[in-house]
Amino acid sequence: MIKLGVPSKGRLMKETFEWFAERGVQLSKSGSDREYVGRVEGVDGVELVLLSAGEIPRELAAGRIHLGVTGTDLVHEKLANWADAVAPVAQMGFGFADLIIAVPACWRDVTCLHDLDAVAARFRADHGFRLRIATKYHRLVRQFLTLQGVADYQLVDSQGATEGAVKNETAEAIADITSTGATIAANHLRILEDGLVLKSQATLWKSRNAGGDCGPLIRKIGAQ
């Protein structure tokens, strides 16, 4: 039995169900909204597994599900060597988001990463600790800033509304996902000109560590 993992709630679940339905595979959630049981119609030998989008990369890497729908950002963040564990089957055309770095809008002279590096050095000299960047994406942001030569910063974990970290004085800058930039602007932040870390969208991934034949489902949806 092939296990297909999809997000268990919200807009991402709805759009995933619609995407598969357009390709002749009907996914549905059984029971109440509190139950995580689902059905698959239109192709044999497939079981629907409802998970949080954040759980799906690890379940794929462990081989406990064969296929899964989640964002590029979550796969790259949660799996250190993601290409060894999963392979993209199809980009799904929804769930678009950019992982970006943003600074307070009042920092008028800070427009790029070079400026951020200079400010970070001055900040540490003035305050005795490193400039704080709030994010949920520690692996991706650290890799990106290292490649760009930015130093003298520290990443602080944000599991709530990251955009509010600067206003709440728990960070001096943020790294977060955005689809339109409206929330960033509403919190008086500005995206750095070269601050795009990763472009993400919902993607169907295949586990490299699970056995079984995913071919019938992949062919049904026209991805092979």
TrEMBL record:
InterPro entries per record: ATP_PRibTrfase_cat (IPR013820), ATP_PRibTrfase_HisG (IPR001348)
Q: What class of enzyme is it?
A: transferase
The biological processes this protein is annotated with in GO are: L-histidine biosynthetic process
User: What GO cellular-component annotations does this UniProt entry give?
Assistant: cytoplasm
The protein's GO terms of the molecular function aspect are:
ATP phosphoribosyltransferase activity
Alphabetical list of NCBIfam families matching this protein: hisG (TIGR00070)
Described function: Catalyzes the condensation of ATP and 5-phosphoribose 1-diphosphate to form N'-(5'-phosphoribosyl)-ATP (PR-ATP). Has a crucial role in the pathway because the rate of histidine biosynthesis seems to be controlled primarily by regulation of HisG enzymatic activity.
Name the chain's protein: ATP phosphoribosyltransferase
